[in-house]
């Protein structure tokens, strides 16, 4: 299941392109949830909160309030892995977009002709890279909850405090809904995570340094380190470093 976002200030254009995207996805037997945005700031905010995580974003370059290149710049500050497809009325607008890691361009006059090939290429790239994504149910305001999809590599650590389990990602922290921490330890111990004390597991890729009684993450966060867990943390950390050196 893919999450696809379409952003254009013209709602009539979105209504017109939606059937083309659905048709291309159906032909490839790909299931997808498609989200329409006429406001770029809303797209950025939703993406930043994994509400949801978008695998593919179709973005109009020629928007008046915030042009597509500026939107792309802000989105790339949040995440580098999603696939970006620019839509434009002027093909010369495709120039000077290398820094945005663009996966495709769609001229508005040739949407019907080029859409299937672009969709197929981008979808194939996503499945070849095979990013591991995790599904969580989180608590939100007013005693409600919702589902979010988070790339595995975005998870920094999980911890249990006062019977609440917190998911800390590169973007923000969430309170998980109805999880047992021991189950999470079992789930993630073979996915590059290590237990640093009884109620905290950390993604090894984010560990910057290990001291006697604490570890420091890449973003400056410090977490307590159990004496009993320290040697295992060191062994796993050194194994990761060795693999990097061999590469």
Automatic annotation (TrEMBL):
Residues covered by the HTH LytTR-type domain:
138-239
Where in this protein does the record say 4-aspartylphosphate is found? 60
Pfam families reported for this sequence? LytTR, Response_reg
User: Is Phosphoprotein one of the keywords UniProt gives this record?
Assistant: yes
Q: Where are the transmembrane segments?
A: none
Keywords on this record? Phosphoprotein
Which Gene Ontology molecular function entries are recorded, alphabetically?
DNA binding; phosphorelay response regulator activity
Q: Where is the Response regulatory domain?
A: 3-123
Q: What's the protein here called?
A: Response regulator transcription factor
Q: Which organism is it from?
A: Paenibacillus sonchi
